Amino acid sequence: MIGVTVLGATGSIGVSTLDVLSRHPERYRVVALTANSDVARLYEQCLVHRPEYAVMADANAAQRLHEQLRATAPEIQVLAGLEGLEAVAALPQVAYVMAAIVGAAGLLPTLAAVRAGKRVLLANKEALVMAGRIFMDEVRASSAELLPVDSEHNAIFQCLPDDVSSGLDTAGIRRILLTASGGPFRNIPLSELHHVTPNQACAHPNWVMGRKISVDSATMMNKGLEVIEACWLFNASPDRIQVVLHPQSVIHSMVEYADGSILAQLGSPDMRTPIAHALAWPQRIESGVAPLSLFDVARLDFERPDIARFPCLRLAYEAMQAGGTATAILNAANEIAVASFLDGRLPFTAIPAVIERVLADVPVRDAVSLEVILADDALAREAAVRRVDEATSKRA
Ligand code: NAD
Ligand code: MG
Questions:
Q1: Which of 1.10.10.10, 2.60.40.10, 1.10.1740.10, 1.10.3520.10 would CATH assign to domain 323-395?
Q2: Greatest CA span in the chain, whole angstroms?
Q3: What pLDDT shows up at residue 76?
Q4: CA-proximal residue: ligand 1, atom 40 (nearest)
Q5: How far is CA 111 from CA 45, 232, 393, in A?
Q6: Ligand 1 pocket, Cβ-based, cut-off 6 angstroms
Q7: Structural domain boundaries in the chain
Q8: Given this model, what pLDDT does residue 396 score?
Q9: Which residues does 376 contact at the CB level (< 8 Å), separation at least 6?
Q10: Which of 3, 48, 343, 346 has a CA between 20 and 30 Å from the CA of residue 265?
């Protein structure tokens, strides 16, 4: 039995992970479940999956969960805070850790799993965006196994040769073709973009996801973060990664080789496929995903991304080229801007504007340590809050 910790169990990826795990009770055992503050959902999950540990990042929420479990499942130990998250990522009886916390909050717990030498199923792309070099160095220094869960990166992983550590050229790879649906606003008139609402932004045409990543998909910052993620995972420079709009979301990404071959991975847009792949690799297991009917898909379309419509994509490429803490600053500014948009305080088109200003406000440093990265993350959040306040007071 393989012991599994699910970080971010109550989220979209967490729920899909538990669905796949529960199809294979003879293979996997849920050891720990974690969430931020959603006590009701984690409580329910505890009763179904009976983990040894339940962690709430929020201390008050942990107290409430503890009280509820005392009556029904007193054997489950409740932990709180970052310490609790890091502890369950590193338990000896855990072999696999699903890293599915959203945003910068996922970095330290995911790193704890890496340092403890676990198989890390990485959904939390923000960890690599913030601290790619340090993160990958830690993976190499430990016996950790890093498997991408982000559907595009999982697709690329499936299309790559076994070892790309000595670079794409040595492996005969010309380019990575990172597909993107273009989100809900691919075709709406640019003049209407200013007025779109959070609910419109979260209504993704092909995928059901958490609200932050849904907004990132609508701005295409998600694809920008994924370009950065791919650079670190596959040891590639950003100019070797081509974003390809593919509205059907059936091809999840491709690898183009020197001989002209392009390998693609196809499937229904359902995260249980990459989750099951990363859990079972190098074997294959049932995921619960219905087989893809190519006759129903009928056609596959491709377009170049429109940078004028999606400035976030440009900002992400520029931050990756700039290096150092630029991508951590980009990520932090984006988290604040997206949260402000979801709160109804910032118009959609101001998201890239805020991020661009913060990138100009906060000086980029060499990302020499986690301390430096986290300090620049904090500076970028402060700068972003100021820029959001400015934008809001101008509107008032
Ligand atoms: P979500 O918002 O649905 O869930 C986030 C989870 O993180 C929840 O369990 C929440 O309790 C937890 N969390 C939030 N803030 C926290 C904090 N401060 N401390 C501890 N835990 C916290 O998000 P999601 O859509 O499941 O995405 C999770 C991650 O996976 C993100 O990094 C996202 O980019 C990535 N991802 C998601 C999808 C998808 O289809 N949803 C696809 C690819 C990658
Ligand atoms: Mg993705």
A1: 1.10.1740.10
A2: 64
A3: 98
A4: 209
A5: 25, 15, 39
A6: 8-14, 35-36, 38, 57, 100-102, 105, 123-126, 150, 207, 209-210, 212-213, 271
A7: 2-148, 156-297, 323-395
A8: 64
A9: 325, 328, 329, 332, 362, 364, 365
A10: 3
The alpha carbon of 316 and the centre of ligand 2 are apart by a number of angstroms equal to: 15
- Retrieve residue 164's tokens: 């790309």
Residue positions counted in the chain: 396
Q: Which residues of the chain have pLDDT under 50?
A: none
- CA distance linking residue 57 with residue 85, whole number of Å: 7
Å from CA of 297 to ligand 1 middle: 29
Q: Which atom of ligand 1 is nearest to the CA of 109?
A: 20
Query: How do residues 68-83 score in pLDDT, each as one tens digit?
Result: 999 999 999 999 999 9
C-alpha of 378 from chain center: 20
The Cα 138–Cα 313 span in angstroms is 28
> Ligand 2 center to residue 194 CA distance, Å?
25
Substitution site in 5, 6, 7, 12 for ligand 1 pocket (most atoms within 8 Å of beta carbon) = 12
Ligand 1 binding pocket mutation candidate from 5, 12, 19, 102 (most atoms within 8 A of CB) = 102
What distance in angstroms lies between residue 378's CA and the mean position of ligand 1's atoms?
Answer: 20
Contact residues for 242 (Cβ-Cβ < 8 A; gap 6+): 175, 176, 177, 178
Closest residue by Cα to residue 78 from 66, 86, 60, 87: 66
CA 281 to each of CA 32, 285, 347, 367: distance values in angstroms, whole numbers, following the listed order:
21, 9, 42, 32
Q: Which pLDDT score, from 0 to 100, does residue 394 have?
A: 79
**Which residue owns the Cα nearest ligand 1 atom 18?**
105
